[in-house]
Q: What sequence folds into this?
């Protein structure tokens, strides 16, 4: 086995690639992140965010967010929303991103995604080591496009989802 620095361990878990979006006080923001399933009943999903990020601040205020699970053809969006900071630029305008209204929350939904999941913050853990906060969101609405496919993030690279494995 190849020796790697310990930080590399955090990159060896295949993760979802999502863009979290939020709206508070008339401001909208969005950032690339990984989301993790917590429970089915009730339907809960967790995200871990650096507290200094513009989108984290919006989620902290609004206590709700959308999880836009990007489709294969939206890789460029994941890169853009994950490398530019919302304090400096309005990413939706700058990247000419088509959005639509959510049904139960105020955050904008990104069009053309594999899935759009609307969440209300059910609980949060503010003092996570390393300046992160964890938000557990309860799913309040959801839609998906079964004709598209999501992406996986692993070892700092993006991968397509392959075929189903069966025993
Ligand atoms: C694939 C990918 C996954 C990311 N996952 C997270 C994450 O889970 N939590 C986090 O705090 N930042 C994550 N980031 C970094 C943020 O998306 C990035 O810092 C972003 O520019 C923050 O935007 P904002 O300041 O407008 O909120 C990720 C970036 C990429 C490219």
A:
């Amino acid at each position: 086995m190849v020796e790697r620095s310990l930080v590399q361990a955090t990159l060896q878990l295949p993760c979802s690639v999502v863009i979290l979006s939020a709206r508070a006080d008339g401001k909208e923001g969005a950032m690339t992140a990984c989301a993790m399933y917590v429970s089915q009943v009730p339907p809960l999903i967790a995200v871990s965010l650096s507290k200094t990020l513009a989108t984290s601040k919006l989620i902290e205020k609004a206590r709700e967010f959308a999880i836009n699970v990007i489709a294969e053809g939206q890789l460029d969006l994941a890169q853009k929303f994950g490398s530019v900071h919302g304090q400096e630029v309005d990413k939706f305008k700058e990247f000419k991103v088509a959005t639509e209204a959510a049904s139960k929350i105020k955050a904008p939904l990104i069009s053309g995604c594999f899935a759009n999941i609307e969440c209300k913050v059910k609980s949060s853990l503010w003092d996570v080591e390393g300046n992160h906060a964890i938000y557990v969101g309860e799913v309040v609405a959801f839609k998906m496009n079964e004709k598209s496919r999501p992406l996986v993030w692993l070892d700092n690279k993006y991968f397509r989802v392959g075929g189903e494995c069966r025993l």
